[in-house]
Amino acid sequence: MKMKDSMDQMEFDRGNPQEDAPRRVQKRKKLNWKPVWFAVTAAVLAAVLLVASLTDTTAFDGLRRSITYARAKKDETGCAQLYHYAADRTSCFASLDGSLAIVTNSQLLVMQENGQVVCNETVKWTSCTVVQNQGVAAAYDIGGTDVYVLNAHGLVRRITCGGEILSVTLTQEGRLAVTINERGYKAAVEVYDEDGVKEFAFHSADSFLMTASVSGDGQEMAAVTMGQSQGAFTSSVVLYKLNRQDPYASCDLAGVAVYDLGLVGKRYCAVAEDGLHFIDRKGRAAASYSYDGGVLRRCSLGGDGYAAVLLGRYKVGSQLRLVTVNSDGKELGSLDLDGDVLSMSASGRYVAVLFADRLVIYTKNLKEYATLQGVSSAGDVLMRSDGSAVLAGSAAASVFLP
User: What is the number of other CB atoms lying within 10 angstroms of the CB of residue 230?
Assistant: First the structure.
């Protein structure tokens, strides 16, 4: 009896089937590990990116290159030959997010790394040139009227300007400042937005316009003018809001010629014969860097917040000095070089210098990062922000992967 009483107490209450609804025993769900692994992977990558950004090291760039070019066939020097073309002495090049633009007086080519040609335009030019900013480039003929805007996928647009083109600058968003020679004026500047629409035009009857640059936000423009005062030539950097015709600020650079103008950080950098002049958005001379008697040979404004300048001790000769300068006019690095420099290019936190017999890549502080010997077939170097560099020759271009 006790056992039965015990068993009676252990019986489950089945309920009244006439009154209670059926109840299903829920099965325990299995944990799906895929979202967990994705979350962990994303967290690890985010941590790597954070560490790389905080420490400013080049380790992450090496990791990125190893992933990006994992399938590329590289030779014993670490080069992958990705582009084959027919060029000539007039050729100039631009590296566009993995594609290569080859510009000559007769043809515009954009080739992807798999060899596919995504742009092939026939032109009839006499003095071709190409300028680039990050993943966008502008090709034009000095004295011509058309600008071809290119990116990694080919031709973006063709813009016909109102006069003979003297110079072109562009932002990484694709905004253009085109200095032209227009009849009835000493010079003019036309500004085109990222869709190719002309949004500003300025005509100068008093001073020659040498070059111009649009701000990164597309709200204003700086132009270099050259005039005469008391028998001497004077250069000025004049600032305009793109919704107004009159300048709102001006900075005079007396007695010097300005060769180039661009943005370094948030300031305009005027590359002059005597030094670098940094002008803020209010038109004030914020900083400067003197060449200290050196002769300007080359300058690249493609670095991330700095300018790379190659100076000669004399007007001729191979004794050179390479310096990197930030927008405060402070040297980040200085290095004496000896040898014939064929090309120089800065991008991201790297500077590439192509000598007649070797390629050397430096960090922005001019610490040697990588060296490649035996580059006699290359005539131009295009630095990339990930630490790789394109070596372009007359018939092919290869990518050096340190």
Answer: 5
Comparing CA positions, the residue from 262, 325, 273, 324 lying closest to residue 296 is: 273
* Torsion angle (degrees, nearest 10) of CA 31, 37, 38, 40: 120
Gap between the Cα atoms of 361 and 276, Å rounded: 23
Residues 6+ apart with CB under 8 A from 24: none
Is residue 337 within 8 Å of 320, Cβ to Cβ? Answer: yes
Q: Which residues contact 67 (CB under 8 A, 6 or more apart)?
A: none
Of 338, 216, 330, nearest to 265 by C-alpha is 216
What is the Cα–Cα distance from 62 to 67, expressed in whole angstroms? 9
pLDDT per residue as tens digits for the range 94-151: 999 989 999 999 999 999 988 899 999 999 999 999 999 989 999 999 999 999 999 9
SS (H, E, C) 344-384: EEEEECEEEEEECCEEEEEECCCCEEEEEECCCCEEEEEEC
The whole-chain average pLDDT of the chain stands at 86
Q: How far is CA 298 from the centre of its chain?
A: 17
Name the CA radius of gyration of the chain, rounded. 30
Packing angle, helices 59-68 and 33-55, rounded to 10: 130
| Angle 295-214-361 from CA coordinates, rounded to 5° | 45
Classify strands 164-170 and 154-160 as parallel, antiparallel or unpaired: unpaired
**Token pair belonging to 247:** 């300048």
pTM across the whole model: 0.81
Q: Is 338 exposed, middle or buried (0-12, 13-18, 19+ CB in 10 A)?
A: exposed
Least Cα distance to 130 among 113, 115, 142 occurs for 142
